[in-house]
Records
---
Amino acid sequence: MKDAQADELLELESLDEVRTLLGPLDGNTRLIRDLHAVNVLVREGSLRLLGRVEDVARVRGVLESQLAEMRSGRAVAAAEVARRLRVAAGVGDAPGAGASDAGFTMPRRSPGATRPRTPGQERYWKAIAEHDVVFGVGPAGTGKTYLAVAAAVAAIKSGAVRRIVLVRPAVEAGEKLGFLPGDLQQKINPYLRPLYDALHDLLDPAARQRYLENEIVEVCPLAYMRGRTLNDSFVILDEAQNCTVPQMLMFLTRMGERSQVVVTGDPSQVDLPPNTRSGLADAVRRLDGVQGVAIVRLRTRDIVRHPVVQRIIDAYDADAPRSARGRDIDRDLDHDAGHDGDHGGERPPASP
């Protein structure tokens, strides 16, 4: 006898609910189909679930529980939905105390160190949980890179993505690349060191080695990104202020299906040649207000390194005259903002 089939509708209240349940580029739809043998169709404010009665009931239970949490005011991430779908299918870890307030499952090693520790970091973390493309802009020590890598590790462990790609432009900051010893890879490694440092803090040595050897985690220079399409990936571009405008466009268009991109940069540390426009400032100006893109501006009060770091930055900001290019960059980054928030597809209301 053929198994009884179900055809049920799950009513949704907003596009955000659809995006969270189905994941970036419908990544969770694939999990529902592959793990639970249920097909999902989006129909005018609702999800249509098709499959065997018991399978549809199981998936509906997961989705309704996540909707209830969202409607109660908790920020739920697509990665959290993916994890719960895997748990329901018997292929994931049960939810526990490791989940952060923003919905990510935090790495098990030193979980306290990877939680947002300032209001600015909370906004940044929430933006990563809720948007496909996030720009984290701010001074050194505000956790831009560290939190992005922590979110990427959480996404890998939850099954939301299959690999992490960490990218950095190889731009000299006073020293010339050619004077460094070794072959090309050895010359480039110092530029990628901050990304390796974050991985070192977030993964135990065995897991880190396994991820790198199996290319679950890839660390590469920006120049190596041309011509690629990155599917099922969490992609981080670090030190983006040292990208040119064409490089930034090239990078952003590498994004493939079921992928997420985080771009980090500090506009006060541009090492590009004179009269070369920073791709970070240009992208923030162009993409401000674009649906699916969030721009989070972190300030010196979000610095979480040694306390003296914030005092050093404040002293330099107060004493050192800005260059013309520095003024241009700051003006572009603060364009239409004048606040510390993020834009997730909507511009802030104009001041009266």
---
Amino acid sequence: MTTFSGRRTRVLAATTATAGLVLVAACTSSGSGGSGTKTAAGGVQLVKAGQLTTCTHLPYPPFQSEIDGKVQGFDVSMIDLVAKDLGVKQQILDTPFENFKTGAFLNSGQCDLAAAGMTITAERKKNVDFSDPYFDATQALLVGKNSGITSLADAKAKKVKLGAQAQTTGEDYAKKQGFDPVSFESSDAVLNGLRAGQVKAVVIDYPVVQGWLKDKANADAFKLAGQINTGEQYGFTVKKGNTKLLAAVNKAIKNAKADGTYKKLYEKWIGPYDAAAASPSAS
């Protein structure tokens, strides 16, 4: 699993670099954000001329995953709005999730920002600057249809082996509830672990479970045993002190909510839009 992740990172990094070179060749140096300058609209400094480089961790549908050979999802679409405002194109680099907590790829200049369905926490704020919240997230408990598990408390009482994605707030929550969760490297690995019987239940973000259950085979095999409101909100991150890019991200989020774009993207990637539930307050 780790080896596979490393291979994927290198392949996508190479693809990104190639796409960046094509973009550079196609742009003129006279335009803002063109091939001759790393300065985009609004004076935003970019790590590569002509592109907004986004670090993410794949797969994590419906926020980002490869569909028909292209990385797509809610986060991708939201950052595309930022890139459009800056007059550049978004390029995506797949990286290990643990680096988002430390800001390593931002600090090393490999990425301009990170978009990975990441919960805003006080601990993470020590290493990166978060955008305004763009999504209210809840956790979910997914179990086999014939498991007999009815809730997280029931799973605990039955001493069920529980799975979660490594380095996530879902894993942290499970530990706080007294579980010793089996850690999986990606959301796909979490589901595969449940399918293979490595674990009897998993805790992961509810929108991810929503996406899984849209597939008939998954819906036939698994069921939602509970939604857990942990008060989490997602944010995009930039390197500490990168105020101009942060302002551009916040502006794109605000405008998308105001002009209806956010609602359209939400319904496309996540599901029915509840304005009250899906409008997180600014932090």
---
Amino acid sequence: MSPDSSRLGRITVLTNPASGHGGATHAAERAIAQLHHRGLDVVAIAGTDVDHARRLVEGALDRGMDALVVVGGDGIVSLALQVLAGNDIPLGIIPAGTGNDHAREFGIPTRSPEAAADVVVDGVVETVDLGRIVGADGTQRWFGTVMAAGFDSLVTDRTNRMTWPHGRMRYNVAMLAEISKLRLLPFRLTFDGEELVTDLTLAAFGNTRSYGGGMLICPDADHADGKLDVTMVQSASRAKLVRLFPTVFKGTHVELDQVRTARASVITVECAGINAYADGEYVCPLPVEVSAVPGALRILRPAR
């Protein structure tokens, strides 16, 4: 870590207007006002969709910036990672989404845009790992938190197909529907070349500890160790799976008999008919190779 943020001058702020049910725009206004107050030169951009936002960021990079600050949830962070991975430009986060798992990992305030903006000015730059997904279909994607495959990706598939109800309730209804159809899924995995063929409910591959708004699915993951933590759940019992979910918020699920863990730098994941999601976003169908890439991102976080 280094206190490089003290030398920041020109900042690009990217907003996802849809984040936080529209609250990101207000959060951006407050954060930008604070950054101006702290003496920074701010260029504000807002994408109408993912492709538009990415083009705006790439154009801003060409013009030059000292940091990219994103306002929104993990989706807009994910977009920034695709551009900043392997780049020297640090990433700042003004959390304004529903999950904010990147912000949680790095101790960035989630309730005050002004406090998060102060982290951009006063914080330190930490160099951290990113996850990298390469799909058999040619997809390549960076991620910061967790890649998920299995039951939780089936729930997200169903949620995305639904038009009603709205908000978190849609996810809950989709989860109940998938629990009613619960079955073990045939996975084939390799961990740094060691093969494991097993039936699982779900598998999660964590560069960081949490996904889904604070669920500590990989509670011992370290974002700077060059490895991914893997959590594998093996339960065909609906009742046991329902009882397991509350323990995930504490990270104590890894102590249960139906859960096992692993740690590796490069992992291959196969399971027919299952999609991979990372940072809450659809990536591609399995099979994939997922790996930890050391030092791929520089991020602004509070000084300890």
